[in-house]
Amino acid sequence: MARQTVKALLNSTEKDIEVSISAWVRTKRGSKNVAFIAVNDGSTPHNLQIVVDLEKMGEAVVDKVTTGSCIKAIGKLVESQGSGQKYELEASSIEVLGEADANEYPLQPKKHSLEFLRENAHLRFRTSTFSAVSRIRHTLIFAVHNFFNSRGFYNIHTPIITGSDAEGAGETFNVSTLDKKNPPLTEEGEIDYKKDFFGKLTNLTVSGQLEAEAAAMALGKVYTFGPTFRAENSNTTRHLAEFWMIEPEVAFNELEDNIDLAEDFMKYLIAYTLENCHDDLVYLENRIIEEEKNKKAEDRQPMNLIEKLKFVVDNDFERLTYTEAIEILRNSKPNKKKKFQYPVEGFGTDLQSEHERYLVEKHFKKPVVLTDYPKEIKAFYMRQNEDGKTVRAMDILFPGIGEMVGGSQREERLDLLVKRMEEMHIEADELWWYLELRKFGTAPHSGFGLGFERLVQFVTGMGNIRDVIPFPRTPKSAEF
Ligand code: 4AD
Ligand code: MG
């Protein structure tokens, strides 16, 4: 008999049929005569109830069926008497595939804190919350490729090990093959990286953008979707040391086209999830509603999860310049104390997350696109404006998240790029190939980077970025 999934059985159009299921036990309860076993196989947030007639089958059959064990059940799919599910399985045979000692199994049939589950990252796939997040994460990955493929973009794999620090922020993880305890030294007594595998010190990539630009200067429309690594010591609910980024890069696009692309892309991804992950979203929404009950009324989210996602799909993002945003912030009274922790002095102030959140959550109450930042607070590759002060940058800020997207029109003029690199003390020798893209057949082009985990966080409503990636890498934690 073919093995079926819990999802297929719960949505079955036939009943009173013989079926087989293999799944993990969430709970077991019952009396002397009957046992009810709730199982899940990761196909849906709902469990399937298996009913075992102990009088007929003998009590011993469920002895080793405990929370966490894995079983195979064969039986008849019948309409459920109780409320909740449409169907249940009347077992005719139960086989324990893998036992789990109830005294040792870390997941009890009760609600565990997300912190506890993080420490048991190898088992948290077995919870309804994390499996719902995992399925939504998968759906979003699929939607990313769908979107770009349908628009004629090519997916480019950019290197993981690289010699450049694309963002110039110096937050790289070094990669070296030299003997750490006894490295070869130069005559000056410094570590001799010429003897390293690549003949120089390399690092894990912080962004695939520069290589994507090279591809866009021939293929026109490209995107990357890969892991990126940042050694920033940020212990926040929005930062990971290893995260996945999607970076489209488009020849001939100017900043406005870039913003249009980003807005269309994000709306598509969210709409796709609403269409394809309804059960999981309802499950996560109910989870949040329960959590919110413990909060004061003024701290509660203004919208439920699904309503919030639909709102983003149906409404235009707000677009304004950095300078306009600074004016709004200077004239704002953000809280009872009427000031921000970090004062907004005027042009040149780098926006802190409290400022970004004020703009999206209190002032505009929707996603906000900020453009034309001061060049001093942005990367070397952004196209300089005529005013000599600002660059064609764009950041997209989301309620509850802050910065979700960072992008720009790129500086395609060789002389201006070289001058900017000099000002920022970036060695032209290190990026000779990047400069050649401007020397030979340069063209206007733009792109952006979307932090995939921040998107998954927004779509699932999870408060901590560590709960939307299977094995989070953060400062002082790489257990798994
Ligand atoms: O703003 P960032 O640093 O931009 C770039 O890397 C550009 N090269 C992108 C481009 O134009 N192609 O990073 C882009 C996005 C951020 O907006 C944020 O969503 C996410 O990546 N991000 C992080 N996500 C999780 N943990 C971190 N430590 C992150 N740092 C950035
Ligand atoms: Mg950024």
Offer a quick outline of the entry.
The protein is 30% helix and 24% strand. It is of the alpha+beta class and 480 residues long. This is Asparagine--tRNA ligase.
CATH homologous superfamily classification of the largest domain: Bira Bifunctional Protein, Domain 2
Low-confidence stretches: none
Domain module tally: 2
Q: What small molecules are bound in this structure?
A: 4-amino-1,4-dioxobutan-2-aminium adenosine-5'-monophosphate, magnesium ion
Task: Give Rg in angstroms.
Answer: 27 Å
What percent strand?
15-25%
| H/E element sequence | EHEEEHEEHHEEEEHEEHHHEHHEEEHHEH
Distance between termini? 37 Å
Structure, explained:
30% of the residues lie in helices and 24% in strands. It is of the alpha+beta class. The chain has 2 domains: 3-109, Beta Barrel (OB fold (Dihydrolipoamide Acetyltransferase, E2P)), CATH 2.40.50; 126-171 and 206-467, Bira Bifunctional Protein, Domain 2 (BirA Bifunctional Protein, domain 2). The protein has an 8-stranded mixed sheet, sandwiched between helices. Strands 2-3-4-6-5 form a 5-stranded mixed barrel. The radius of gyration is 27 Å and the shape is globular. The protein starts with a strand and ends in a 20-residue tail after the last helix. The mean pLDDT is 94. Bound molecules: 4-amino-1,4-dioxobutan-2-aminium adenosine-5'-monophosphate and magnesium ion. 4-amino-1,4-dioxobutan-2-aminium adenosine-5'-monophosphate (4AD) binds next to strand 12, strand 16, strand 17 and helix 13.
